[in-house]
Amino acid sequence: DVQLVESGGGSAQAGGSLTLSCEYSGYPGCIHAMAWYRQPPGKEREFISRILVDGRTSYSDTVKGRFTMSRVNAANTAYLRMANLQPEDTATYFCQTPGRQCDGRYRSATYWGQGTQDTVS
């Protein structure tokens, strides 16, 4: 199993910034695809961003241009830099890995972190 632990959540004022980290217990020699989701209070969990094994990123329209996802393979850590935060960004943020590439082969295996709460006022 892959363990994922999010950190960096907290409070921010509108227009401010926060950076989330997701440290995962990766497999030696493997590169993990990673993603961030969030669940606003009383709403469904929604996709925010992903970074593929080759480093390409994609974002939902609601955060495009404000959020930036990155990954440091050697540190088994993914990041989500959130800028120009708005009250509607208030949510619990979850880190996910949908799979990993090892020795050129991709294996799908989805794991989730426990989530970290962010509040924007």
Any overview of this molecule?
With about 120 residues, the protein is mostly beta strands. Helix content is about 0%, strand content about 55%. The chain has no helices and eleven strands. The protein has strands at about 5, 10, 20-25, 30-40, 45-50, 55-60, 65-70, 75-80, 90-100, 105-110, 115-120. Strands 2, 4, 5, 6, 9, 10 and 11 form a seven-stranded mixed β-sheet that branches. A hairpin with a 5-residue loop joins strand 5 (about 45-50) and strand 6. It is elongated and about 45 Å long.
Radius of gyration: 14 Å
Order of helices and strands: EEEEEEEEEEE
Euclidean distance between termini CA atoms: 37 Å
Secondary structural class: mainly beta
- Mean pLDDT equals 96
Say how many strands there are: 11
Major sheet summary line = 7 strands, mixed
Tally of individual helices? 0
Give the percentage of residues in beta strands. over 45%
Q: What is the percent of helical residues?
A: under 10%
Detail the poorly predicted runs. none
- Overall spatial form: elongated
In short:
0% of the residues lie in helices and 57% in strands.
Which properties best describe this structure?
121 residues; mainly beta
Break the fold down into its secondary structure elements and pairings.
Layout: E1 4-7, E2 11-12, E3 18-24, E4 30-39, E5 46-51, E6 57-59, E7 67-72, E8 77-82, E9 91-102, E10 105-112, E11 116-120
Parallel strand pairs: 2-11
Antiparallel strand pairs: 1-3, 3-8, 4-5, 4-9, 5-6, 7-8, 9-10, 9-11
